[in-house]
Here is the input.
Amino acid sequence: MKILAYRHDKDHWNEFVRRHYPSVGNFMLSWEWGAFQKKLGRETNRFAIENDAGETVGLFTLVYYSLPFGFRYAYLPRGPLVAATPEDFDTVFNQALCAIEAWATEYLADCVFLRLEPPVEKLPAHIDIRYHEPDHYVQPRYNLAMPLTGDLRAGIHPSTRSNINRAERRGASVVIKDNLSESEYADFKAMVQDTIKRNSGVNAYPDEAYFRAFLKNFAEDCKGGVCADGVSLSVFCGYRDGEPAGTHLVLYYGDTATYLFGASLTKHLDSKISTYLHMKAAEDAQQRGYRYYDIGGIDPERWPTLTEFKRQFRGTEFSYVGNIDILLRPTLYAIYTLVRKVKGFFHSLRQKENKKAAKPGAMPGTKEIPA
Here is the structure.
């Protein structure tokens, strides 16, 4: 196998992704997600994996991140995507990884490592590359998605169904928009800050530049909420008696609607606005003909409260292997890992101090978004 710069157009790329990718997380390998990374100012390239017959058997997007002293690493969001029959998958997958390692060793001299996120539940028993599985991951390893069939409200937990009914009695409503006006964006920013404060100061959100680029790429460039390229965005604005209470951003690609970001105001939590927004987004996706509503990442150890909340929707749980780091410069990688562990240790200490300082009766420390 060999690695080549992608030579076809976005329609061919997206068709390959939709045909071979699992339902959850596929938007991260879409052509448009790569374009979004470029708008964030990140160097981004697309590559194809070809077999000896010249057939495309895999794709991946490469996004570069800087490290000190002129080095960097390259990240394959939810990739590589490898297409093969179940009987041949382990062999083809192993060959693809070997090709990526050989190619990276020759052409990525300034990279310390490659960070892969293959969309597979488990690795083959034998892989012929030098790799390391870190104890953390970029995207969630576990996702929960609601199959959009039948009566959605009948299938969820009774307490969640009761909260949805309670939301409607308490004046909750939802308006679906293609984008946010400046005033609506200001409301969303206030919700984000309120959510961070409620979570003991833990900030799980991207920065201002990220949100601006995200909305421009997936809303302003996709007029009418439906992008001709196959990716679209809807903003679910939640209100309580006409007053802004919560906001969810949902991205559509393939056969899945994916909840990406959300925030809410503490003073309106008793209206169960977050639960109501999820339900309305799922019902809307069902009406549009999508197969799944991906509620996002779950992890009983990292996010116990959030995981319990999402599991009340009784969706299907998807799991992936997480990160695989191909070591291109093992010594520098060891230094990188050590520095990261030291930073993580002090970060966890600060989080514990923030939780101790939280006011009595504050909301539990949960994240509105997983990554």
User: Anything to note?
Assistant: The chain has a mean pLDDT of 89.
